[in-house]
Structures are given as structure tokens and as C-alpha cells.
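Example 3.
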Amino acid sequence: MSLVGARVLRKEDPKLLAGRGTFVDDLSPAGCAFATFVTSPHPHARILSIDVRTALAMPGVLGIWTAADFSEYPDVPGGLPQFERPALAIDVVRFPGEPVAVVAAEDRYLAADAAAAVLVEYETLPFVSSITAATAPNAPLLFPHHRSNTVTSVPMLDDAERELAKSYGRARLRLTNQRCAAVPIEPIAVLADWTPSGLTMWATFQAPHHLRNYLATWLDVPQNLCRVIAPDVGGGFGAKIVWYPELFLAPLLSKWTRRPMKFAQSRSEAMLQMSHGRGQEHDVEVGYAKDGTIEALRLIVSQDLGAYPDPTGLGLAVLTTWMAAGCYKIPKVVTGFRNVVTNTTPIAAYRGAGRPEAAYTVERIIDVVARRTGIDPVEIRRRNFIQPKSFPYRTHNDAVVYDSGDFPAALDECVRLLDLDAVRARQAASRNDPTAPLIGIGLSAWLEIAGFGPNGSLEGFGHLASWESTQIRIQPDGSAIVFVGSSPHGQGHETTFAQIASDELGVPFDRITVVHGDTESVLQGVGTMGSRGVPTAGSAVKVASQRVLTKAKRIAAHLLEAAEEDLEVESNAFRVRGSPGKSVSWGDVAWASFQPLRLPPELLAGSLEERLFQESPNFSYPSGVYGCVVAVDRRTGRVRIESMVLVDDCGTVINPLLAEGQVHGGVAQGIAQALFEEVVYDHESGQPLTSTLVDYLIPSAPDLPSYIAGRITTPCPNNPLGAKGIGESGAVGAPAAVVNAVINALSPFGVEHLDMPLLPEKVWAAMQPGAIAQGQAS
Amino acid sequence: MNFAEHPKTLVNVDVNGKSVRYEVEDRTLLVHLLREHLRLTGTHVGCDTSNCGACTVLLDGDAVKSCTVLAVQTQGRSVRTIEGVDGPFDGRSALQEGFRQCHGLQCGYCTPGMVMASTALLAENPDPSETEIREALEGNICRCTGYQMIVESIRWAAEHGSPPPNGVSP
Amino acid sequence: MIPAPFRYIAVTSIEETISALTEYGDEAKVIAGGQSLLPLMKLRLAAPTVLLDLAGLGIRKIHTEPAGSGTELVIDAMATYRDVAASPIVQEHAPILARAASLVGDPQVRNRGTLGGGVAHADPASDVSCALLALDARVVVIGSNGEREIAFDDLFIGFWTSTIAADEVLTEIRLPSARGIGWSYQKFTIRSQDWALVGAAACGGRVALASMATQVIRARGTEAALAAGASLADAAALADEGSDPPADLRGSSAYRRHLARVLVADALRDAAMGSSNRH
């Protein structure tokens, strides 16, 4: 029986459910001290002085350090030369919450007291807290040597004006994909223990080897003395592959104090110090034919980078422009973008990282075209879809070749699960009943780029490489340990990869353990991001397991004196086809594999071990069609989701239970972006207004609907599993479905667009007589 | 006021059925007594404004947020944490098993708080509807699951948890 | 985050509480359930150096007393929101209060947070203060000058500010039985666990609003119109008269005014029909 495709329960769960997980802040080695930052209250200021005398004299304080103490160390690894971020602010602070000093004390209580007693004198500087302010003439500059807050840009080579002008109609939208916060429920935590034998560091991080590589370089220690462990990681969503100062300072503080040193953010610190996501402004225009065919698309993106360009932050707009055309065959697509620094928390990857922004915009503008042409939103999508026979499909960008898909089939399935005709009948009735809520129906036919694995795809973000590694170790009793370089933060690698290995090896699931997250035990690794776990690491496990099995069969054949090709693996044993009594257990084969006297001459002891660095010839392109039905209260503008249909195509599914869980979680974050969440800065003061979970509106269970999941499957041809990845799909597809549904509900009021989040007041205001909706097109 | 030494109090509290005496600073939060001093690290901290519920424990049987209770306020009372939950499902309670069966957890960080909050729910309402479950969890944030499978997990427990002999926890 | 250091005193009598309040003055703060105070202390927005815990005073009962020809409901300050919401006595004599208490925060907060603490915190968004104002309730406070009662109409004077003196402690909430009187509490939030964006309480011709000023207020325009015999709809249209609603990320002043009119209309309609469990 194949485990791939089965709803296998997770290996991870028993310990987590018993409260026996190990998150970084759960660790407290003997003598552990606690460090915390003194941070800037200002968006932009010159540091005049830092007075640590009172704080140093406080009980339990081990030391206080400022930038000057780290002058022999480089800046933290950055995305752009000359825009690097110092570990502690040097002379100038550039965002509220930027660390200016670090305090170490006996425990977190005493550290908090001392941090509050450090006196920093600032001279405030003019600041910019939005793209608009940062790009205005004579705007205050974050990096005066650069003379502009636009740090990089890629202009359009051709503005497509000719194609747009020729079209039957043009539609244009200015829209904002608002700044969000990832908010993994576990904030950033680091524990460093620098002993004479070397450094061990536990960090809540999505890519421990990646951290090891950079940390050893930064500290100028050889990598053999620098061990990084990502134990249980309490969610990441992209915000845990960012170079935070404490990742670099914790080891030094441990070395200097000769104590294990822990940093553990509080949430109110995390809201300012952990990277934010999204933060794009789009100017999109399409030209269309009378029949709704899109003939040209132009997308100009402005990306808010926050105060310091992050390596992934710089890549967000690239991915957005790559994916600008979504599922559609558009003959002319042109894009351009600029990256702008502002006096705000740095922006980096957040679940989807550049692709939700692209999917949202193309799905919004196609609804505008549907409205202008009077064509059914289902039909207009169907007319513009890339057809199933057109794959591999070359897009406007050479790097982007869609692998496979069946968008019409996904759309049909979504329409079926929505019961669209019935919903439309209800909608018509609701419009004529002034006491009934307004029903709205929204579709989102989305596609994203995932499976980051092709050579070169992650190197641009500063990674060592783009492969993922595995090592399969068969124990003498025939049980197996699978080491993987991709380290999870909730995805369920220990289960998924054991399913794959079990199928390939014929070793029972319970006799396979998956090990990850430790640079000392795991060969090498890249990390878990970009929906790459199953396509890259999963494929590595599959291929490496096959290779192990080939050698195991050779040993079994030798032991059974049979031909390899006559062997089959079944019930944890190798059997000779047609000779029922002739078999040898996996345990016997494994045992023999360590005994040279029992091996065939060409095999050496221990040869049932396989290591593999799995590369991919191309990305994968998960896709799907989501449908949303909302009810909008006419009197208050409150939006209630009545139905959320999710038809995904992630290629081969390893574990439907876990895949569905990934979709649900991503969709929840997508709905949250559509209806609730936004990181807001007061443009008058530059102060963050959403620095606690009181004000940053993460929905809880009563605020979100149930989901109806559907699925179609077109395998990915670019990896041995045929898997496309599923981690980000929900967050990519959901926002447009929800917003399109609300705009559809509001269509009697002539509304064509409202920016997220669709808080009740915004929706209510759009229904008021004389309301001028945003983004009303030209 | 400047304290030469921060005021401390000897706290006597029953934690998971064991009597504990511990001298803590008066300002010590219950969650830090549990995590830092008693080393019961299953209870987690996810925010500092009492919004996320990751730190939920039972205080005399009632669900409370242990980040918003002082350790000294538990004097003479009883606290139950995730480490004190067990049951007939291979050592797991029906709720814990429900979370496993229905994939009600991913990263697992909010999970102990979810389990404790729903333990209190089922003690009061052994057969809650989906709406009642969602409302009972309004003070618990999960960033991974989107909640549907958590709701299903609790329904699983309601359907599979035989009523306990003493009529208390499921 | 971590509270600043303080000395904790589990007081054992009202007298001890008052003498401590007198001795420590502004440095001392009374803690009841702590669900408002502790988050502020953790963010160091409040930093009392002495904390007086009332939990040991044994003031958590709910009962009725005859008062003149009627009945008075008496709720001890340390009754939790959950006690209040679940109390058959409250459900009988002040069902609007039981309802409002059931909507505060989330279950964990309701298990710890107390009616007295919530009222004394003087938060303009307090569901229970809003309901108690509509119920024409009084608080009993005891201080160095003895015991006195303060009507809810005279209790709040600004954001987190009440007329309870620094050396006084709130011990009881008293209100005339509202048994049989039509009532409704309407609460509008963006998320389930949020404070009221606007709350509206209607009970027996009195109408009160949460989050429409620096304190909970009565909708005097609506009440006057009702007294003058206006239709419910016309009276509701005056709900925001005299209010001064705040503006924040969740909603502008104008939107809150609009919501007040909508919620009061619903509250009056439901109250006229007897009672309500809508929200």
C-alpha cells in the first residue's frame, strides 16, 4: 500500500500535544543569561549620547554594549552594498524599534529593568514613513550618500503604449498591497552558548545551515566550530529567514560573558523588530478586446523596503513582475519596479513573498474588465486562460516557464463547489430586499512560482545554492534515519518525508525517523521557504531512497542467491517473486550491509547510506481557483464570508491532510489580509500604530469561516515526485477572491475597487450616496 | 520607590497535583513561574497583551491566561498545565487525540493553550456546536491552521471522549 | 514584556486596604482580576510600586435585598464577569448586565476579570459600565472618610478617570431590579475578541453608549425623544447627540456616530419586544 497520497497522522504531534516540544525559549542551560535591546523610539534620529551608568549599576546586570563595542565586526549581511544594517545603530536610527544598545542580565526581568534605565539622547531628523513621502521631491534621505530613497529600480524597456492604445478598451487601477506582519506565534528567540569547544546556537529559524554559513563568516570562526540548531520552530511564514541583529550578537555576548546567552522577543518588540511583508503599490493597466480578451498588460510596482534593504525584500518586486500575467495568455506584458527605503521596519518575505501581490492585481483588474464589458467573471477568465495543451508555457520573462496546469478544469470545479447558479439566484434576491445583506461572489484564478530549486534561483537571495540535500542512513536493524536539509516550522516534514522514504525503501513508516535542523548532524541544507520543501527535499528523499533500495536489493539477492530483478520488497522484507518461502528481512539485509564477509564483492561495509543534493531543472507553478461568497451588511459595512471554496493544483499530493492544512492556514492569512490586517504608521509622527495584537487585527476562530476544499492534479514535470509545493498557495489565492466578492456585492453602488483591508467603515463608506470609491479607473 | 531588593513572596500552589513552594519576585507572572522556575515549558508566551491565549492554563479549573496572572495571585490555589493533561488515548486525553486525528496543529506553539482552553470548554459543555467552539476559542490565536481543523479536533473529542467518572475534565 | 518591580500585598480587610491606600498614595494600586491592569503594567504604561490584591476579602457574592417597595441587586466588586454572566439572580434582575458581561473580552478574561475592577478602570469601551449606566446603578466605595455611594451618572469624568478617590475602594455595585423591563445590549466589534467599536445599552427608557466619548455616556437626545413620545426610529436618530467619539484605526468619529444610531435603533427595537440576545 502506498503511503504517498494517504492521510497519515503526524509523527510530530504526540510530543507537541504533551507540551514536550522544544522551542528555543524552552531551553535554559545552567548559567543562562538573558539579553534584550534598548531600541529607538524615533523613526529617524541622530544618536547624541548613550548613558549606561545607571543601568550598569542595577542588580543582575552583566553588561551593556553599544555599536562602538562591535566596531571590528561587519554590518549584518545585507541585500545591497552601502545600505547594510549595522547590528546596533551607528550614529543614526532609521526606524522605530531599531536596536541601539544591548543589555545582558541574570534574567529577563532584570534585563528589562536595565534596558528601561539606559538613557539615550537623540536629535530627531525628518522622516519618511511611506513610499509617497520617500519619493517626493526633496524628501528626507535615509542614506544621504545615495541622494535618493529609491535604492534600485528596473525600468520598463517598452511601455506597451502602442498595444494599449490599439485596444478596444483600457482599464487602469492604482492599488495598494498593504504592509502586513507575519506574526508567527513564537517570536524571534536565540540562545547562544560559546564554550572553549566552539559555538552552539539554537535559533528559531527557517534555514539553520544558511545561518551557520553567514554566522561563521561574520564571527570569523571556522564552520566546524559553529553549530546552529533550529529546534521546534513556532511558525515562520518568511519572517524567520531574515538577518536579525540578535542572531549575530548572541554568540558574542555569550563569549564575552562566558555564559549561555538568550534573546527572546516579546510580541510588542516583535511587531517592530521582526520583518514585515507585502508593502507594494501597483499601477496596472490592461487593454482588452470587445470580447474581453486581454491584449496587453502594464504593471509598475513600487516596493517599500522599510529602513534597510533585506535580501529577500529586494526580490519581492522581481517575483511580482515575473508573475504579473497570472493564468492568462496575454500577448504583451511589460513591467517595471522600484525599491524604496522608508523609516519603517524592514520588509522581507511573508508567505507568498511577491506572488500574492501579483495574483491579487491581475485578478482585480480582470474583474474590472468583466464589469466594463459585461462579461461574466467566469467566462472572461475562461476566455483568457492559458490552455492545458500549451505547457510548458513561455511567459513574458525568460526565467518563467510555466510547468503544467489545467486552469479551466480548476475553474469548473470551483464553480461546481460554489453551486454558483444557486448563489447567483440568492444574490439577485438579496439586491431587491433592502433588509437583506448584499451577497457578493468573487473568484480568484491564481498561479504562483514555487519549488525554489533551479540553480541560481536562491543564490540571488544570498543562499549558498538552490538544491536541497538528504542523507539516508540505514541502521543495522533495518530502520532508517532520513536527514534533510530543509528544516520545517510546522509543515510536517517528519511525517511527509517518512511517507516518501517508506514507499521507496519498503521500510515501515514507524521505523523511519526524519532528522532536520541541526548543522552538525544534517549534511548540508538550504532551508524551508518558497514552497520548496516537498518539490526539492521530498524529491531528494525519493531519489536517494531509490538508490539505497537498489543497493539493498543487491545485498538481498546475494544473501538469497537470487537475481536482483526477481526481488520485490513487501512487508519489510525482500522476497523472490514466485518463490513464496524465499525471503530475507530488511533487518537481515541491513545487518549484513555492515558485515564485509556477507556482502557481494563490489559493495563495502556501510554502503547502504546515500546522500544526495537534489537540483531541479525548473521551478514549479502551483495554481488553483478560489471562490468566495460574502454577505455585506448594508447598515454597517461588515463583511461576513458565507462560503470559501478552494480548488488547488499542487501536483502530486504526499499527504492530503497536511496539504489541506497548509491551504487552510494560507487562506486564513489571505482572508486576514483582505479583511483585517494592516501594519500602520502615523504619517504625522512616524510612529507605529499597530505594535501590539490589540491593534494588529489577527482573526481568531469566530472571525473566519469553514473552508470547502477541492483539488485537481497536474503533476509537475520538473521533479521526480511531480509535486509543486503547497505552503503559500492559500495566501496567494485568497485575498483576490475575498476582495472581488466584496466589490461584486457593492457593484450596485458603482464601486470598482477598494484597497485592503476591507474594514467595515471602508465598505460602509463606499455605499454612502456620493461616495467616491478609490481606484475608479480611467 | 526604590527597592533595595525586589520584594519577594513565598508561593504555595498546587501544580498538576503536586504541591509547590517557591519564592518569587512579587511581579513574577504565573507563566514565568511555570516556565522559568518550575521548568514546565509546555505553556508558551505569544503576546504581551492577553490576546493570543498561548499561555492558557487552568486555575482552579477555569481557563486563564497565565501571562496576565501574577504568580502570587495563585497562593493556595491549583494550576493545571498541558503537562498535567493525560488520558486513555496512549496517554493523551480525548482532546489531545482529537488534535492529532484531525491535524489540529502545525507548528504546535499555540497548541497547549488551545488544548487547555478547549479542555475548559468541554468540561462545561461536553457537546459544543461549531459556533460554540469558535466562540469559546475567541481568545486563542493560531497562525498556522486557519482554525477549521481545530474546530474538527474538538468535535472529535466531544464524540470520542467517554464522560470521565468524576465528571470533570474530558 | 515585564512589569516594573512592585510590592504585592494580599489585603485581608477593607480597613487594611484603605490604610495602605492612604499610606502609599499614588504609588499604590488596587488589583482585582488584573485583566486591564496587568497588560498595562507589562507594557510599563502603569508602574505602581504597591499592589493591593482584594482577592482575599471574600467579596464575590451576588444577592438581592429589599429596597423600599422593590428589590435591589447587590453585586460584590470581586464577582467575575463569568460569575455575573452565569448568575441566575443577575439574569433575573438585570439580564442586560449578564449579557454585557458575557461579551467582555474572551472566556479567559471573563474568568479572571471582575465587575468591580472593570467599572473602577473607567474605560469608555466597557460593556458592563455601559449596561450599568443604563440600569441606573450605583457603586459603593469605602474610604478613610467612610462609605458612600456614587451613581453611575456621576462616576466617570474622563478617560480611565472616575470620581472614586485615591483612598477609596469600590466594594459593591447596587442597582434597582430591572426584572421584566425590556432591554437590549448591542456590541459592534471588528474581531470577536475586540473592545466595542461602539456599544449600546437600552433598558427602561435609559440608553447608554460605550466608546462614544472619553467615558461611557447616556444617549440623552434619544432618551429625551423617547420621553417625549417620539418613534423609536426618530429617537435612535438622535443617539450620537452630545457624544464625542474617538477616531482610531478601527473607525472614524463619523462612523462611530453612525454605528451608535444603528445600534441604538436595534437596541430600542429589541428592548421594545421584551429582551434581546442579539449581537
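Residues 111-124 of chain B form the longest helix (14 residues). The beta strands of chain B are 8-15, 18-25, 56-59, 62-65, 78-80.
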